[in-house]
Amino acid sequence: MYTVNASRGLPRHRSRYPAERYTRWALRGLVAALVLALLWLVLAFHLNGQPIFALLFLVLGAALGVVFTRRTLMSHRYIFPAVASMALFVIFPLLYTVGISFSNYSSSNLLSEERVRAQLLARTYQEESATFGFQLHSSDEGVRLYLEREGAPSAASEAEAELEEALEGVSRFVTGPMSLQDSERRHVAIQPAEGEPMGEPLAMREVIAYRAALQNLVLTTPEGLELRMAGLRHYAPMLDRYETRDDGSLYDRRDGLLLSADGETGFFVTEEGERITPGWPVAVGLDNYARIFLDPDIRGPFIQIFVWTFAFASLTVVFTLIVGFVLASLLQWDQLRGKALYRTLLILPYAVPAFISILIFKGMFNQHFGEINLILDALFGVRPDWFTDPWLARSMLLLVNTWLGYPYMLLLCMGLIQSIPRDLYEASAVDGGGPLTNLFQITLPLIIKPLTPLLIACFAFNFNNFVLIALLTGGNPDILGASTPAGTTDLLVSYTYRIAFQDAGQNFGLAAAIATLIFLLVAGLALLNLRLAKVRV
Predict the structure, then answer these.
(1) Which residue spans traverse the membrane (predicted)?
(2) Rg of the chain's alpha carbons, rounded to an integer?
(3) What pTM did the predictor assign?
(4) Whose CA is closest to 393, among 462, 318, 308, 310?
(5) Helices (H) and strands (E) in the chain, counts
């Protein structure tokens, strides 16, 4: 159907399929909803003090709106979800990790400076120089708590002077009838007592029975002063410990110290340089990278783990290749019967989830009850310490990883060997060549080139084989003298994990620096893999 444009006299095409218009409007509505959702995330992250994440979703929302609203970018709509996913789950985490590596981000430097200041200002302390003894009196109306002032502050500090002013002229307080059976914290108002206490005081044995309930009571005087239990027979006032000065520093009212914000370390520090935790993250430049190579307590374990990581990945590739290639060659033997059964049995370890196999091997290598030690003890009278001796633990890891990885090499070698023309072997037989000649002159030269990129990929995978280490040894036995949690069987990736999540300090900055180095190594291997693959093509 065509309509005439009155201004130019040209026909204008109108879609004869209304469903197409509805589909376009539905797509525009979906895009608008996604953009609004992303803008809501931007606002939420911004209000929660996360500007980096807010900027990330702002860029994604803007890119989504531009790509799906401009006709010239129509061809990019199909690849946009993949690019956005890569930016969200690969590029951004990588850049975020690299950024953390240049900071002192850790469990002690976790909050922002504003939140650290607010947390310090919210701290209180008990002024035990002005205590109140108490008694519980039971009467017909219920149990009342009577407090009588025992000590007075010396007024040597500003806080004690304010406390004396708040308690001036009042020495006894009393609560109204109440129940002391509550197990949750409660605020109870108290008033100055007039006259003698009503009822008989409860004995110490009965007071002890109410101890949990008394500890949960927060007594508030008419002036707003809070009293909390400071002993079995005492309550003490709760005072704000820190106050803000005009220059932004904090004054410690309890100890009389002045705290200033140190932008280089990310802590409030005293005049003597003592740090007050918690702190906030600050930029430290290349300090984390320098610690890896200059701090002897970190450099030694790092180099040892680095060498073992390379050795573990290399030996795993060599062992799995040898086992897989030998088994693949045997399965090509013409006189071998039941090849299908043998193939199924040999590939079976590849079908079992890796974590199940690892846990089974962990039980089999148990020093006291494992089947392997029981067999070795029965045959040779030895029980190796697989999990406490460093070299035995590493040998165990190589054995288990070879068992897990040889089926993959078996499949690769079987496919490559089967692609070799049989004419070459027949010509070799005519020339008098034997099995070794065929192996070194025909088979290996023809499969090594297409196999090289796959071997590099296998090396990169085992370079970061975190699951095997975490489930089998946990990195143990530990390296003595290390300032960070480090084990003789740790790989770089498990070493990084332990620094970030198992160390008492949780040094995320140092862990991010090591993770950045791992990325550079693996990225180099990936580039080498691509280069070899291009040469192969």
Answers:
(1) 25-46, 52-69, 78-102, 305-328, 340-361, 396-417, 454-473, 508-530
(2) 37
(3) 0.79
(4) 308
(5) 20, 16
